[in-house]
Design goal:
This protein is mainly alpha-helical and about 280 residues long. The protein is built from 10 helices and 2 strands.
């Protein structure tokens, strides 16, 4: 992307517009750990460039995400062994199977397919390209692709660790799915992609109600996609709860990586240390 663009575009636009959310400076680190990490990433950015620093940070985040997925699988096994939340799985799935009207299954299937292997990538790529072109920046591309890759990696790792069977076919709505049940890939992908899209949009919204509405829409989408998987009998409740938790954790890592990138970018755009005023 061309760096010589309008004030709201390119690197200067990122520092000016993406740096502040509701007057809060995302490049200001309040904890000692945050400041230490920020200084380290700044040094890397000086040597390799801001985007390279972002990619390196996200690569480390991917390794952490894989660890989170493996850890989540271990926690799930512990919960199952202790007869905790997993005790709700069969009663809830059976209740939905008895409750579903005949027309409800196809309607919910059409909705949940939005977060499937075709719908979600198409949606993510469309939003990614739109934001990248409008902002004349590679950052939305890097963040969206990394978020999606991390979500996929977490799904593969967690499914490989557990290999949990899905609910019985007699309780599910066709078309049936036969891959491992834990965690719900649809829910994890919806949480991550909707979350990162909302984050990128919120960065450029000036009014509080707009930011709240954007976050609410993303949250409702992630929640309803997850619930749809239980309603259809394609996943147990614990599969969905775990996917929400893993997706939220990965989102935190991606957003933190972007904040570090903005910190590096600010230093490169403002070599004299003068602050850019909040919009």
């Amino acid at each position: 992307m061309d760096d010589d663009a309008r004030p709201e575009q390119g690197p200067a636009g990122e520092v000016r517009r993406d740096r502040y959310v509701g007057g809060r400076d995302l490049t200001h680190w309040t904890t000692r750990v945050g400041r230490v990490v920020a200084r380290l990433v700044e040094q890397i950015g000086r040597r390799l460039g801001p985007h390279a620093a972002l990619l390196l940070t996200l690569a480390i985040g991917l390794a952490v995400a894989a660890g989170l997925a493996a850890g989540g699988a271990e926690v799930y096994e512990a919960v199952t062994d202790e007869d905790g939340l997993a005790n709700l799985d069969m009663p809830i799935t059976a209740w939905f199977a008895d409750w579903r009207p005949g027309w409800f299954g196809p309607a919910v299937t059409a909705y949940t397919d939005v977060a499937g292997v075709i719908g979600m990538p198409v949606l993510a790529i469309a939003v990614m390209l739109l934001l990248a072109i409008r902002r004349r920046s590679w950052t939305p591309v890097i963040l969206m692709l990394s978020a999606g890759l991390g979500s996929l990696l977490m799904t593969i790792v967690a499914k490989g660790f557990i290999g949990r069977s899905r609910p019985p076919l007699e309780l599910a709505v066709p078309p049936y799915e036969h891959s491992a049940s834990f965690p719900s890939g649809h829910t994890l992908n919806a949480t991550v992609i909707a979350g990162i899209v909302a984050y990128l949009i919120v960065l450029r919204l000036e009014r509080r109600w707009q930011r709240v509405l954007t976050i609410a829409v993303a949250a409702v989408f992630a929640i309803t996609i997850g619930l749809s998987r239980v309603v259809l009998g394609h996943h147990w409740l614990t599969d969905v709860v775990a996917a929400w938790a893993l997706g939220a954790a990965w989102l935190v890592l991606v957003i933190t990586a972007h904040r570090l990138y903005l910190t590096v970018r600010r230093a490169s755009v403002e070599p004299d240390g003068e602050a850019v005023p909040a919009p």
